[in-house]
Structures
1.
Amino acid sequence: MRPVVMTTTGLRLLYQDDALLVVDKPAGLLSVPGRGPNKADCAASRVQQQFPDALVVHRLDMGTSGLLLFARGPEAQRQISRSFEARQTDKRYEALVWGLVQGDQGQIDLPLICDWPNRPRQMVSRDAGKPSTTRWQVLARDASKHQTRIALQPITGRSHQLRVHLQTLGHPILGDELYAHHEALAAAPRLMLHACRLSLPHPNTGATLVLGSGVPF
């Protein structure tokens, strides 16, 4: 289907059928409600205004834009959740990071755990962290701006995984309020991370569904 703007929510609807729907979440919007009435507005509540049967399957950080998937009804939610758990889904992101990344591609394997005194920050812990893997590939380097455009494929789905892995690599994502140093934070007006591609087996047919969202930066 061609993307349409849902008049009741202001979100771009990229895909819709009787089992699932996908919206293009803008940066700065929560995926699910936060604590307190000032954090009630979110992608989930907006989508449910028009699709009351829509249920959350996964989340994007508030600063991250791009593909956000909802299941329609509990059975579809169970099926899609099982696909995520079995790693039958493939998620791809694009980011702008600080510095000129050496090498053209690689893999980051660093276990992550919540940094409780500083939550919601996460941190690397080789002793207590959960296994976390990210594959990356350089798309372009801009020496004049001292930044690199990079494609990211999270193999695991830990909280803030891409952000922490890139910071630990020495290349924080531009505009990252939690993990970027001052220069990298000031280099962009938002977190420069976008969920640009998602593929998964359709919960009804098993056929591979591939969805895409253009990178807005």
2.
Amino acid sequence: MKILPLILLILLCGASVEAAVPKEKAPTSVEERRIRSAIEEQYNQIQKEGDQLKVEKMQLKTLQQEVDKKLVRMQNLRQELTKLLNRKQAAEGKRVTELSKIYEKMSARKSAELIKNLDPKLAIELLAAMNKKNAGKILDNLDQKTATRLSTGFTEFPVDQSPSY
């Protein structure tokens, strides 16, 4: 018994909804049909463009996510490279310190003979890592040209690259 009133209510609501929505009038002239056709074509074109924009927007989001992932990966690689470079520099610094101690234990004349044949940068690093008194003795045993070149290089040695070992 409760189903019958419910069905009547649905039918009445459906009828009132149809009555509330006005139906379109059929076009009365050729010009009106052309205008409606043009409007429909423009509407369809706008719909297509909107759909295309949605697709492109999704593609852009996907590309942005890929770029973000690659950027994070590159930053991680950069950090890893920085750590490796720091470790390499620390190891090199340790070896330069050890080598400078070896040169300090030699006679100043023998150390001078060896240092004059080294790469100037390495020679400067060795002298910088040595006791200043011993470095002075070694420079004293070098020929004037080499001693001047190494002294000049020592004064131009960048502070941030100075041996911290």
3.
Amino acid sequence: MTRLAHADIQAGRLSSEQLAQNFADIAPPLDRQQALLAAQRCFYCYEAPCTVACPTGIDIPSFIKRISSDNLKGAATDILSANILGGACARVCPTEILCEGSCVRNKDDDKPVQIGALQRYATDWVYASGTQLFERAAATGRRVAVVGAGPAGLACAHALARHGHEIVIFEALERSGGLNEYGIAAYKVPGFVQAEIDWLLGIGGIRIEHGRELGRNLALVELQRDFDAVFLGLGLGAVNALGLPGEHLEGVRNAVDFIAELRQCADLSRMPVGRRVVVIGGGNTAIDAAIQSRRLGAEEVTMVYRRGPETMGATVVEQAFARDEGVRIVHWARPLAINGENGVVEEVQFAYTKPGPDGRPLDTREVFTLAADSVLKAIGQVLDPVEGPALKGGRIAVDAEFRTSLPKVWAGGDCVGGKVDLTVQSVEDGKRAAASIHSSLNVSAG
């Protein structure tokens, strides 16, 4: 675990008991009675808008109907057939802008069906019971390399394993899961991610090699030579820099690194946090970093975003949650400089902004400073340089079937971009790429 020497960035601001409470499951699961009552509220719409809104196309009315009759195996099969990481997505999906946001009951005088909670209820039964819903087809003799054990790579690997292909996943980090394991707030998925992955791997035919990084000890040309197909689920490993004076000061770090360190910390009483934390950015990473700083014991946490609340990457629900947690959110301001003494951050200087004629923020003549002993940068992630496939807009270019410009190479997930950079979209990319790969391997076999 990273050790920071900054005197104001300390561990143990709260007791172990308080930390355990702060990082417990933020949305406890429904019990049977609650689930049955929630399921009865569904209208089971024909051409349901909730299903249309789900990037993986889960038949939501069908699985809720099955829950209402205590058919959890059938409900889980509906979910996991469409989204093999349905358990994680039930916890981390912004349902307020996807399925629940499209629910016909989502009106001023009503509230949407608890689709996310019901999805968790059904999938949790699978992991708890150890029930394996899917069988692997007879071995085809075909081998596929998957680079990245995140949502896209895991979804692609499972789908191909079901067809009988042999899959080897190459993962740079020590643990599988990608964003779900390293990049999401701990209180959203406590103790869950690895259990879901263990269940997914139970189908067989999938091997994971950790510590294998493309460009370091893994070569794409060799994968093309040794495997029948390659899928790149690389995610976005690099982080945008602010490009400001003082960015090198002690106490300034990337929010994703802070979250990853927290997620891998076995004892949160040893996790250092600042007393006065400034988070720069307005997306989900910024929100998660800000809230977790508060829950670790930071006294003042301020998020600063250069535009208005309506353009923030974080949803309205997430923004409200942050405010409820005591996070102050400042809109229409951008950082000018990070100042400090003796190599240690002390404050951040900002300029107030306003909407320009084209909608872009323009500086005003007003400036302000925020005292800070910790500054977390969350202004977006970018693709690590990757040799070989053509890029478009800084991400790997793919066609409608997720083929790259290279023969035998497909890609999906955040590294290609899409409608949204979400776990559920990455799963869909992996699933669709797997269908294309399988079709290609069958054609080749013929």
4.
Amino acid sequence: MLVDFDKAGGLIPAIAQDVATGEVLMLAWMNREAFEETLRTGRACYFSRSRNKLWRKGEESGHVQEVQEVLVDCDNDTVLLKVRQIGGAACHTGHRSCFHRRIENGQLHVVAQRVFDPAAVYKK
């Protein structure tokens, strides 16, 4: 067993980190199918809890994650994907990282510029 999907009801956290800079880009969830597809294809695939289906990173935006390395934590229930972020942004808000806000004086403040306009990319 590479990863223990049973501990948390079939899902594990998956952290995406830029392989070149070490910047944490995002946290998402994987089920067994998403994990196996990621290993097989070399492209990040996650499980969308809100849509209850596989989510292939970049399928709408073109901002895919090429997986360079997969690390598993000591409890076998979290993975760290070292990725090459294609298109410059990992976050659906258009920011490079999902972690683009800082708490200052009890308030959230955006601390990064957008890479793309989400309204122009996601035409739902």
